[in-house]
Design a protein that fits this description.
heterodimer; A: alpha+beta; Gyrase A, domain 2; Alpha-Beta Plaits; Elongation Factor Tu (Ef-tu), domain 3; 3 domains; 6-stranded mixed beta sheet; 6-stranded antiparallel β-barrel; 9 helices; B: alpha+beta; 3-stranded antiparallel beta sheet; 4 helices; 9 strands; 19% helix
Chain lengths: 373, 124
Amino acid sequence: MSADSSNLLQTPLFSLHEELQGKMVPFAGYAMPVQYPLGVMGEHNHTRESAGLFDVSHMGQVVISGEKADEWLETLVPGNIIDLKPGRIRYTMFTDENGGILDDLMITKREDDIFMVVNAACKEQDIAHMRAHLPDHLTLTEFDDRALVALQGPKAAGVTARFVPGADEQDFMSYMEADILGVPCFISRCGYTGEDGHEISIPADKAEEICRALLAEPEVEAIGLGARDSLRLEAGLCLYGHDITTETTPIEGSLQWSIGKRRRENGGFPGADVILEQLKSANVDRKRVGILPAGRAPAREGAEILNADDNVIGVVTSGGFGPTFGGPVAMGYVKSEYSENGTDVFLQVRKKKLEAKVAAMPFVPQRYYRKPK
Amino acid sequence: MSVYYSEDHEWISVEGNVGTVGITDYAQNALGDIVFVEVPEVGDDFAKGDEVAVVESVKAASEIYSPVAGEITAVNEELEDNAALVNSSPDGDGWFFKMAIADKSELEELMDADGYKAFIAGLE
């Protein structure tokens, strides 16, 4: 760790990361493992082939309780929360008055309240934002005494099921509460790698014990933030602060699928006038698209996207090498007239102008679990 | 044949006036799995310390600096399809380019193998 690490927060798994020889780096104010001795490529491939355990305890875990908390939450997000059934999870975002995205998050409707997971870098502002709008009859609680880990990969659910019988038959985007080694956990069938798996919220003082037990299973390796980034990029998933920001609306960000029919008709969330007008007219200046560079050179965040006449038509917001895809992959914003899949574009990478194509995402098929009907 | 090392973790192996340049085992290990190398073009001229190549790992791009001044006479085309050679053989098949050294006295500013070994020991 660098000398200025003293200001960094630690997750409940910090000493386990050090024991596992995690290379610790600052991330959103926390000391987090960017990789372990297996390395980014090895960790990425292991997750796609078997099961990887990620510490995501830096993310915010928040509960809103009280009468009709779902109705109130709909005043801050465009997702359909009222009609979400108890035990179900939904992806949505906090929007601002201009239709920009303040953060993206996962919302779980539980029997008596609403549980949400927000990005680490945004959690303080998200909580302040909610508190500023929170009516007296609702209560906001941050679970800062809980760790959060993600077990991801084709063998992940089978591993979870050894500790929680039936966890492998739990539906995608659903939530349950169950004990792992006698410890009460929140178990969600979701993740951010494009793979099947679970996210598990654990009381902080038991997190290391449970993670040691998960890591002792032969399929499981500890995975750092480096592979988490390449996995989510291949899966076409947005990284807040890069692929979506306050400067991009959910429509520009190609997240219109997350806005349900009733919300499209009735609005009632910040920036609805802007967002619904963009949705209705299908008229936006720019769109988030997938981009496949033709050669082997990765195009990184910030690389300009050009047309054949060398005019700048967009910018890469996430880019790198996709180990499973087997080549460079990127996403970014382009002017709408260039957003059709298959459109030829060029990428300015250092002094070279590289050929590329606008391409459908995900770059690697998502393999979420669908319960047989 | 003598091999010299820079503080930026490049090696240059010199035969006559031609130097073959690559990155050290320490550097490839720090970079992790290498997925792409952008090599210079034959005929390009570089001053000592110029950015001459780029190495990309899964997570980041890193610049490689010319250890001495000179003109590029050959590049390792194998790296185009197999950048991982830099990981598996950093001081052999994973070489980057050859250059005609402009001024051999610049080599004296570099380290020998023992000096480099002491240098990286000091980084840990």
